Amino acid sequence: MSRESTLRSLRAAAVAVGRVLTDALVLALWVVLLALLFLATGWPRWGFYALLVLGIAAYVLVTAPWSGRGA
Prior knowledge:
This protein has helices at residues 3-41, 45-63. By secondary structure, the chain is mainly alpha-helical. The protein has a domain at 24-71.
């Protein structure tokens, strides 16, 4: 492996790790925000899970084009 190839691989790995950490942070913040909101208001549990799933689905739809894959 050449030095240039190794640097490209390391950069790609760093970008992948950064994306995973960013995704984990955003999703964790979404869960905490919803949990605090629902605990403070006493709204029903089914609403929490509905908003949780909808929020994650929206995040996936927004960030999917960033991957560079697809048509």
